[in-house]
Structures are given as structure tokens and as C-alpha cells.
Amino acid sequence: MLKPIVLAAFIFGLCSPSFAASPALFGDLFGDDSSFATINTTGHHARPHSASATNRAGGRLSIAIDITTQQMIVADGDDTIFSFDVSTGRKGHATPTGHFRPVRMNKIWYSSKYENAPMPWSIFFHGGYAIHGTTDVKHLGHVASHGCVRLHPENAKMLYDLVQQYGMGNTDVILYRS
Fold first, then answer.
1. Is the separation of the CB atoms in 104 and 171 below 8 Å?
2. Fewest Cβ atoms closer than 10 Å to its Cβ: which of 4, 28, 139, 156?
3. Is 113 left (phi over 0), alpha (psi -120 to 50) or beta?
């Protein structure tokens, strides 16, 4: 009796959209954390603003993604910290809209749904949907993904570090169409 239940749980787990290969399975494909700093260091569409990236007492981090304009604004209250070009879901692969909070974070994750595609600096916010880095930087600013929010790897690391600093419980992810 226990054997069929365990088998069913295993099969269901493999079919789950949020199932992905463990990072340990493939080793550290991208090297140490600093390796992303050498990727496309010019023209990666990060626009830092004057607001300090330190979490003020009681501050909340807001990550607002406009699916229409393919822009992300990262802010603490009224203070914009960064704005980034992103790629969201292309036709047939819609990015969800709504108000979410990060549910888990991984420095590197591999999608089991899309041929073990690397997802560096992943911030999961709704099931298998995440904000993460991409090597397909030429399409940033245009729809291109299977529903996730893609960023330049350098920007994804900056955002990942900022969410770690503020904490997932103090971070809001808002996706909308303008």
C-alpha cells in the first residue's frame, strides 16, 4: 500500500510546474558569484537612482514590473533605487499579473520544464514563475520569455542582493499592464 503512494507522490512531483533540477545536480555552472560581473558590462540597461539601497527601519522593497513597457522599477517607498529593462512572457506564455511576495530564492536554478535552462539569481514569486537573470540579453525590453521575468544577470544579482537585504517578507512584487 505504501509503495503506490510513494510512487504517485514521486510522479506528481516530477510533473509539477515548479519542479526543477537541484543546483547540486549540475554543479556551479556559472562559477562563483563574481562571474556575472564580467558578462556584458556595457549597455545592460540598468539605471541606478540616487536613493540609498539600505533598508531603512520599517522600509519595504517594491518591485513593480510593467508588462506593457517591459520595465521594472525597484523602489523603497517613493525612492526609486533602480529601473531595469526586462523580458516577460511572449504570446502563449503569459506572465501573471497581480500582487505577490517572494516565496523562495536561489542563486542558481535549472528549469526542468524548459530543458534545464539556467535561471541565475532566481526570485520565485508565484508557483514556478520567477524573476531571474538570462543570457538572452539582446531581447531585454521585449517580450521573449515563457512567463518568467528576465533580467540582465548583473541586474538580477543586484536585485537578488537587495531582496536578501530587505527580506522576502518586506518585499512586494507587482506585475501589471499600463
1. no
2. 4
3. alpha
